[in-house]
Amino acid sequence: MELVANYVDFSAHNAFAAVLRWCDTAGAFILNRVNDDAARRTLLRRWESSAVMRSIHAELLVRGSAWEATFAGNLCSGTTVTVDPILTRLGRTSYTLQSSVRVRETGQLLARVETVMVQLDESLTKSVPVPCAWALEPLLETAARAEPLPSLERPAGCFTWKSQVRPSDCDLLGHMNNASYAVLMEDARLAFGAFGAFGAFEPASCLRLEFLAQGKAFQDLTLAVWRQGRHLGVEMENGSLLARGLFVEPETPRPRL
């Protein structure tokens, strides 16, 4: 699937959000490969109304100043990226997609992404079987799974960052858009570096997001942030836990001037 990167996507600060947005859009594209017309229409309708992302694992192959340089030559015309999703797992109520994100003009690989989608009922409160699963079975492909990341236990008294869900952060279902979670967690990560004893952080190489509930417009948010080696944990709350994030810094960060 081809998508044109917007100006906001050119910023390294928004790299994870851009990748999440592109892969979210491409999630419906793979359903167009279903051969049966009735099954395809049903799957697309249910995807638009009640399929939600449960988790995402995004690895950036290009980051920081290199990300911005990739788009700098096309500021006027925009840069086209291609997202190629494949179906790698089909469960009873969920399925897994793996996507590669590239610059169309050069073929440069920008990111690899693994997404777990869950089918909900009409009330968006309970998981239900994936509709027409039989029609998806021919699309299954074999691929290596994303490397597992550790689970970090949140320490007491860690740094917190306050924010709020804006109406523009929300999708057609009235829920906070998946890409907005990445933006707010990146904000909190950088604030933690700026106000803590660490100084500016290197651009992260990987982000794992787990979506536990849905943020809605005007809700106040608290983001707790802590560090453990190369890993930085983030938990987002609005009175209850909405999402967990885990950033991974590169093994060999570039020297700081």
From TrEMBL:
Lineage: superkingdom: Eukaryota
- Pfam families noted in UniProt: 4HBT_2
Entries under Gene3D superfamilies matching the protein? Hotdog Thioesterase (3.10.129.10)
UniProt xrefs under SUPFAM superfamilies: Thioesterase/thiol ester dehydrase-isomerase
| InterPro entries reported for this sequence | HotDog_dom_sf
List, alphabetically, the CDD domains matched.
4HBT
Q: What name does the UniProt record give this protein?
A: Acyl-ACP thioesterase
